Structures are given as structure tokens and as C-alpha cells.
Amino acid sequence: VQAQPAPGSCHARGSGLYAEPDSTCTPGALNPAVTQATIGQTICVSGWTETVRPSESVTEPEKAASLAAYGDANSPHEYEYDHLVSLELGGALNDARNLWPEPGASPNPKDPVENELHRLVCDGQLQLAQAQHIIATNWVSWARRHTSLPSAPTSTHSASPPATASGPD
């Protein structure tokens, strides 16, 4: 179980289903086993994410601490403990920098964006690093330009690319 940021120290950008995490608390983190050179043996293999997904016995206590860090007082069932950089895009498996309490249940509006970016990477139409940057920094804006995402509040921010370390520090 990974340590989480201090209670109340994180603040989501936006709200509702189009909220994005605090870029300081949850900048995104990458799985070092997933690189452009290894996508054919990792993320582009059907079912691969299920072989690496952390168990609920680990993520449920983390989700509670992450909810506290984000100051979310609603029921945990109203949130998905989400990998900012999804496992299907080579996100870190269990790193507090890559997990946050995303409002709403799964599936949600971010899921088709993750799926489309994954398809583009595995079809060779987009570099893995570019897809990781998109999902970590402003998936809502990208989705509005490239998919049929319904109109959502505009998010104006800049974020740094995701961290590259994975796992416990």
C-alpha cells in the first residue's frame, strides 16, 4: 500500500466527470517495463493489463487515503480509483503519483479516450510518449478535438509530462 499525499492537500481541476487531478499530487507516472520498443510484448497484447493490475486489497485502502488527500467527503462508491496514465498506455501500476479518485463510476468519459489513444499507439499512428503526455496533461481538450466527447467545461492549465519512475520509492 502506497503512502498518499496529506489530507486536503490536493485539488482537482474542474469538476464532475470531466475533472482532472491536481498536477502536483497526481502528475502521472510510468511503468518502466513499457516503452515504445516493448509495446508489442506489453500493452499491445490483449489481456496484458489484467496480468499487472493491482489487487483491490491494495487499492481500496489507497483509495480511501487518496479521497482524503483530495478532500472528497462523498461515498467512495462515487469515485473510480483511476490510473491517470492508464495501464493500457503504460502507466505505473501502483504509484500514488498515477492514481487519484476520479469522480463518477466506470465507465466514464475518459475511458474511450484511453481506448482510442491505445488503438493509435498499437496501430503505429501515435508514439507511446505522445499518448502518455496527452492523457496525463489534458485528455479533455484532446478528446474535444479528436472524438465525439460531449461539450465539457474548458480546462486551462499546463502540466508537466508524467514522471517516469514506477513502484515504491
Concise synopsis of the structure shown:
The chain has 169 residues and is mainly α. It has helices at 48-52, 56-69, 110-122, 128-146, and strands at 79-83, 99-103.
Could you explain how this protein is built, in words?
The protein has four helices and two strands; from the N terminus they run ααββαα. A two-stranded antiparallel ribbon has the order 1-2. With 169 residues, the protein is mainly alpha-helical. The model is unreliable at 152-169 (pLDDT under 50).
Integer-rounded radius of gyration: 15 Å
Beta fraction: 5-15%
Helical residue percent band: 25-40%
Shape: globular
Q: Strands of the largest sheet, in order across it?
A: 1-2
List the helices and strands in order.
HHEEHH
**Structural class by SSE content:** mainly alpha
Report the average pLDDT across residues. Answer: 87
Count of distinct strands: 2
Distance between the termini: 12 Å
Biggest sheet features? 2 strands, antiparallel
How many helical stretches?
Answer: 4
* Unreliable sequence segments: 152-169
How are the elements arranged and paired?
Layout: H1 48-52, H2 56-69, E1 79-83, E2 99-103, H3 110-122, H4 128-146
Antiparallel strand pairs: 1-2
Helix pairs in contact: 3-4
Quick tags:
169 residues, mainly alpha, two-stranded antiparallel sheet, 4 helices, globular
